[in-house]
Amino acid sequence: MTSRIDYSVWDHIEVSDDEDDTHPNIDTPSLFKWRHEARVERMDQFIKAGEDLEKGLAESKRKLTEAQKKTKNLSSSVTDDAKAELSKAQAEEKRLKKEERDWEKKLEDHRREEKKMPWNVDTLCKEGFSKSVMNVKPDVKDETEEQKEQKHKTFVEKYEKEIKHFGMMKRWDDSQKYLSDNSHLVCEETANYLVIMCIDLEVEEKKALMEQVAHQTIVMQFILELAKSLKVDPRGCFRQFFAKIKTADQQYQDAFNDELESFKERVRGRAKIRIERAMKEYEEEERQKRLGPGGLDPAEVYESLPEEMQKCFDEKDIAMLQTVITKLDPTEAKVHMKRCIDSGLWVPNSRADEGDDKEEDATYEELNKEMGEQKIE
């Protein structure tokens, strides 16, 4: 007989945001590490508030018990002083009863609020949810990063087409049926590939497709977190997720949508970083291509030249450059022309039988002769 589990406790499930289980191929330390510290802090504050309410109620009950005893003792006395004290004691007892009701109401409201709070891995991992007699997930040995990477690569090579097909689905029923027919896809490798797929689509500016695949990524992540919380094989509990999400109340649906929006923002952020990195790499490649024989960038060298020399290169006027050079300090002129040669900004006559030093000297001392024969590149 199959054990029945009360799945009503998952009215509001949050995707785990404190686990760093993403695959090494994913270009971010943890795309699912969302708002964990803030959430834990809120939980701690909420728990402390509950504890304070319970202490307050207990103290109120203690005071009321003492007041009731005092009232009982005074009621048996017939003296005028006792009657006066009795009247005060009864008034105090009445006040403490009201105070007790107030504490009870506050505690009841707190517990009602607790039931409305979204469930997550931190709250689900309790003794009551730690065991299940169906589809129990066997203990597995820790895998090395190399093993995880190879496992991911092998899985994707085999099932890439099926994963992409699942990522493009829109209807709950279609997704459930597809996973029923392809239950091997209910695993971390599928979720990891979908994350990469989302980032690739955002980089390619296929935003509508990215949002669709992002939806399916969160579907898979919800299933995996549910399985992790129950310590069962995810292939054995994905139907329960679909049964719940298709009949979810507004708060559950809001929780799902909130995680989806958070994930899409993360994807956009990672895509932006990837694009910026690619642009920097492209710019560096172009810079390397521009480097002259001496390893200098002609654009950088040009920017370092005096304005008068820059104008000469802008207008490709050799006569003007000759005039500017003669007006400069000889040492400064030699430094500038050496940098122009090393960057390829100026190409002197090729002299196979001369060394670099002779070429440098010729550049300055025989500039008048060479300028008539060279073109400024």
Features:
single chain, Cdc37_Hsp90-bd_sf, 377 residues, elongated, 15 helices, Methane Monooxygenase Hydroxylase, Chain G, domain 1, disordered N terminus, mainly alpha
Secondary-structure blueprint:
Layout: H1 36-75, H2 80-116, H3 121-124, H4 145-167, H5 172-181, H6 188-203, H7 207-230, H8 238-245, H9 250-290, H10 298-304, H11 307-315, H12 318-327, H13 330-343, H14 356-365, H15 367-371
Helix pairs in contact: 1-2, 4-6, 5-8, 6-7, 6-9, 7-9, 10-13, 11-12, 13-14
Briefly, what is this?
This protein has 377 residues and is an all-alpha fold. Helices cover 68% and strands 0% of the residues.
| Largest sheet, strands/sense/barrel | none
CATH homologous superfamily classification of the largest domain? Cdc37, Hsp90 binding domain
Using DSSP, what is the number of strands? 0
Instruction: Give the SSE order as H and E letters.
Output: HHHHHHHHHHHHHHH
CA-based shape = elongated
Report, as a whole number of angstroms, the end-to-end distance. Answer: 86 Å
When the domains are counted, the total is 3
Structural class determined from secondary elements = mainly alpha
Report the CATH architecture of the largest domain. Answer: Up-down Bundle
- By CATH reckoning, the class of the largest domain would read Mainly Alpha
Query: What is the typical, i.e. mean, pLDDT?
Result: 76
| Poorly predicted runs | 1-35, 119-136, 350-365, 368-377
What share of the residues does DSSP label as strand, in percent? Answer: under 5%
User: Nearest-angstrom radius of gyration?
Assistant: 38 Å
According to CATH, the fold-level topology of the largest domain is Methane Monooxygenase Hydroxylase, Chain G, domain 1
Subcellular location: Cytoplasm
GO molecular function: heat shock protein binding; protein kinase binding; protein-folding chaperone binding; unfolded protein binding
Keywords: Chaperone, Cytoplasm
Protein name: Hsp90 co-chaperone Cdc37
